[in-house]
Amino acid sequence: MKRMKQIISMLLILTMILTVFSGCGQKSNDNTTQVNGENSSHVATVDDKSTTDDKNIENDWIAEMRDKWYVGKDITFDWYLNYSWWNHNKPWTEYPVLKDISDITGVVPNVSIPSGDGTEKLNLMIATNDLPDMITLDISDKNVNKLINQGLVYSYDELIEEYCPEFMDEIPEEVYRYTKSDIDGKLYGLPSWFVPDLMPNNASAYNVRKDIYEELGSPDMTTIDGFKGALRAFKEKYPTIDGKNSIALSLGENYGSRGIVEKSFGIREYYVDGSQNLLHRYKDPKYIEFVKFINELYREGLLDQEGYVKKRDQVKEDRSTRVFCTATGWWGLNDENAALDAKKPDSHYIVTEALNAPGESFEVGQSKLGWTISLITKAAEDPGEILKFTRYMWSPDGNKLLEYGHEGEDFVIEDNKVFRSEKYLEEWNKDKNAFYEKTGVHTFRFFQYSYWDNALYGAFTEEPDRANNRALANTYVTYDATPFIYEMNPDPTTAEGIIMTQVEEVIEKEYAKIIMAKSESEAIDAYYEMIEKMDKVGLPQLEEWWSAKYKSNVEKFSK
After folding, report:
1. Contact 365, 488 (CB under 8 A)
2. Residues 326, 473: contact at Cβ < 8 Å?
3. Which of 17, 91, 309, 320 is the most buried if burial means most Cβ atoms within 10 Å?
């Protein structure tokens, strides 16, 4: 927490004492700093709201919210997001909605992201004990337990008890039970997108260029023959686009989206044998069919030939120009869709029915745990203030502002459904990402709490293609993947953690030989050689650890 001491007059202190309510949501503090060298100009502050004659509706609303959620004046803290791809990089208060959050709470986070590998950056922070005040990372990241084991983060239990006891009543039992640490049973952070019950909310999908798909006669791509036939028809009709070789199927850099295609062959996160033991998913007997399929696509030139050398920006450019089909998160194609439609109307990506290998079905697991977890580190000078900020972000008030904007101006709620205003929809439908970047809506949703918002989320009006994408992708969610995900990464300093690192190194080195093999027999040989090398570095021992953890998780989440 960064502060500059100022001398505040006795009159100001008396005014603040009379004006600010006591309790978790409000705080009077004479150690203040002026953030970004400026004060809020469009809201009634704690110091002047009792005397202002401004009757502006927005000011009245913010003043009302301040009464509930004010933390202190000009508070800032360092917030590290472990995501190098995070693209909301302007100063916090340059986003109108985020500025509203600061005007309400008095808090302005100083956000940073890694420029390269986030894991390396975080490991360096831990090793040098040079930590920010708050860290947000994947809820399943192995560094969560590392931070807990080394005593580098506060538990929410102790902070809530000391600074904000009523916050505990606002965290549902399901969140506490599913998110608390197995190390000591304490809650070390709050999740985003927590889902108490399995509900459709899926991003993984097969996406095709709408214009080209329709030109090809909207072929059925749910069978292996139909899928390959559509890719071949595309390559025949469009061998090049804009002077470059066309790409029938893009799986991202390092073919990172191949997991979506694996699911078309019934491959899940792990393979569960007849004794309920967990084995690496590559040991699933069905995996050999996927090996044959992916290698054939590569040999025929239907799969991007340069997937192992391209970076994210190049993949994005390709998908904005010369790709027919992608297997990726459909929510993440907004920039590409905008670029395609700007060049040729109605040429954006739409979700198509998933490929289903013979006798199998396309199944996408969903974790109840959500996406991220945000931890308050012991480097924080005043963790209580950060806790109070997170309480607002977690609340229905904070969620509603960040997700939808201002009620009455940006949206209305009727019959438990959210309806965007015409003004909002006009900009949102034109370019969603530009709208989010302009307003701050839909950005820092690391405390997005689906539990309270289930009745509203996804019910708002949107253009037909996007609504269809959402509905079709949501049909893919068919099983609870929580037991496969919860704390399934061993501490990297343990024997199993070291083995896991070595197994991942083998995969990184050997998997390319499978995809790029010159014949099916070579691909199969490369696959078995990779499995053998994984076993040699200790995979069976890791699988024993996984099996014990999985059985524990099944018991934990079946209660």
Report:
1. no
2. no
3. 320
**Residues in a beta bridge with 245:** 240
514 forms beta bridges with none
Distance between CA atoms of residues 279 and 67, nearest Å = 54
Query: Would you place residue 97 in the very low, low, confident or very high pLDDT band (cuts 50, 70, 90)?
Result: very high
What number of residues does the chain have?
Answer: 559
DSSP 212: H
Closest by CA to 135, choosing from 178, 83, 175, is 83
Rounded-to-integer distance, Cα 513 and Cα 526, Å: 6
Q: What beta strand segments (E) does 22-126 contain?
A: 75-81, 107-112
SS3 111: strand
CB-CB contact of 387 with 244 (8 Å): no
The alpha carbon dihedral of 523, 528, 531, 537 has a sign of negative
**How many angstroms separate the CA atoms of 117 and 193, rounded?**
24
- Best CA proximity match to 420, nearest among 438, 435, 439, 406: 406
pLDDT at 13: 36
**Cβ burial, residue 83 (10 Å; 0-12/13-18/19+):** middle
The answer for residues whose C-beta is within 8 angstroms of residue 38's C-beta and 6 or more apart is none
Helices 432-439 and 334-343: crossing angle, nearest 10°?
A: 120
Q: Alpha-carbon distance 150 to 135, whole Å? A: 15
DSSP state of 112: E
pLDDT tens, residue by residue, 421-445:
888 888 877 777 788 899 999 899 9
Can you tell me the distance from the alpha carbon of 550 to that of 470, in angstroms, rounded to the nearest whole number? 31
Q: Residue 559 and residue 556: Cα distance in Å, rounded? A: 6
Instruction: Express each pLDDT in 305-325 by its tens digit.
Output: 999 999 989 999 999 999 999
- Tell me the one-letter amino acid at 191: P
Order of strands across the sheet that contains 323-329: 247-250, 323-329, 204-209, 349-352
